């Protein structure tokens, strides 16, 4: 049986101008686009083929409107079996904290050809738009990509290692867990000269950066950060004060729409 092809592509962290040329070319040819919640609607408006069928298959925490991974896998197979060119468009980069492995296994099991196109991940976009070089010389030699989402069972040794390292720590999907995360690091004696940069809705018109000091933990303002939120911890976070080139948004709002069921 002749099948179509699936293109798994990263859409970048928000700013539609950060979409790669290759992803844009495939969107212009696509018969079907399956788009995550964290994909700019401007990308779909400006680059998707006018005749393409666009399906929003976003996930958002425990929202009942979220589309299950099983349903997304079934859609990929169904449209590919109709000899369609399908673009599976993911926020950020496809290799960072996404369910790309589930989708790759599904495509492989059904003998569906595919191609993977990288995108600018949230860590790169957020750090650049906040003026924070993640491995700035003299500040950090390495960077770690982590998440604190549903990770409350980590042993003390894990937190002790993070507190002691000079690596830059970048936490995805961890805004709601920031107080617990910071508390764990404080318990393990993290250095007071390290800071936390919290970057809400990075690269979008609503980007907002907040800096916190560990030695001022008790005075932090309690806040529900707007998704997506990226957290950068380490000595490099302080560089935002010197090199941040973009002012915090004056307007408040949500750049990405809520997940919508099919």
Structural class: alpha/beta
Number of strands: 10
What overall form do the CA principal axes indicate?
Answer: elongated
Average pLDDT, rounded to a whole number, is 92
Distance between the termini: 28 Å
% residues in beta strands: 15-25%
Order of helices and strands: EHEHEHEHEHEHEHEEEH
Biggest sheet strand line-up: 3-2-4-1-5
Share of helical residues: 25-40%
Radius of gyration: 20 Å
**Number of helical segments?**
8
Low-confidence parts:
none
Q: Profile the largest sheet.
A: 5 strands, parallel
Account of the 3D structure:
This protein has 262 residues and is an alpha/beta fold. The chain has 8 helices and 10 strands. It has helices at 21-29, 41-47, 69-80, 100-109, 122-130, 156-164, 178-187, 240-243; strands at 5-10, 32-35, 53-56, 85-90, 114-117, 143-147, 168-172, 195-200, 208-213, 229-234. The chain has a 5-stranded parallel beta sheet with strand order 3-2-4-1-5, sandwiched between helices. Strands 6-7-10-8-9 form a 5-stranded mixed beta sheet, with helices on one face. Strand 2 (32-35), helix 2 (41-47) and strand 3 (53-56) form a beta-alpha-beta unit. Helix 3 (69-80) runs parallel beside helix 4. The longest helix has 12 residues, at 69-80.
